[in-house]
Amino acid sequence: MAARITELVLDCTDPERLATFWGEVLGYEVLDRDDDSVEIGPPDKRTTLLFLRNHDRKLQKLRLHIDVKATDRSQAEELERLLSLGATRVDIGQGEDVSWHTLADPEGNEFCLLSGRADP
Fold first, then answer.
1. Cβ(39)–Cβ(32) under 8 Å?
2. Residues 41 and 54: beta-carbon distance below 8 Å
């Protein structure tokens, strides 16, 4: 028997703000919330994201990050959508000839928009 990832926990200063951003990015809904956390996930609740309040600010590049792919549009169209939701472009030394876009969420957590499409 193996284990599986059931939730990813992201420390943040504003759980509501990040849950709203990532909910829009991924099409996830709020599953639970309290004063210090918000959990979002897909309808099957298979793997969720938990945003946990932590007053410490992010100081360096994350050692683990999220990669996303568009499901129903081109990479360029998805990039524009993510930027309109509040993502920003970041340079972490990836160079200019890569097939992905390196972005940051509203609290500066890096993530990548990969090329190609994923099944919805």
1. yes
2. no
107 touches 12 (CB < 8 A):
yes
Q: For the chain, how big is the Rg over CA atoms in Å?
A: 15
pLDDT single digits (tens) 17-69: 999 999 999 999 999 999 999 999 998 988 999 999 998 887 777 788 899 99
Per DSSP (E only), the strands in the chain are 7-12, 29-34, 37-41, 48-53, 66-70, 88-89, 101-104, 110-117
Strand partners, 65: none
Give, in order, the Cα–Cα distances in Å from 58 to each of 62, 86, 96, 105: 9, 17, 25, 12
Quickly count: other Cβ atoms within 10 Å of residue 110's Cβ.
17
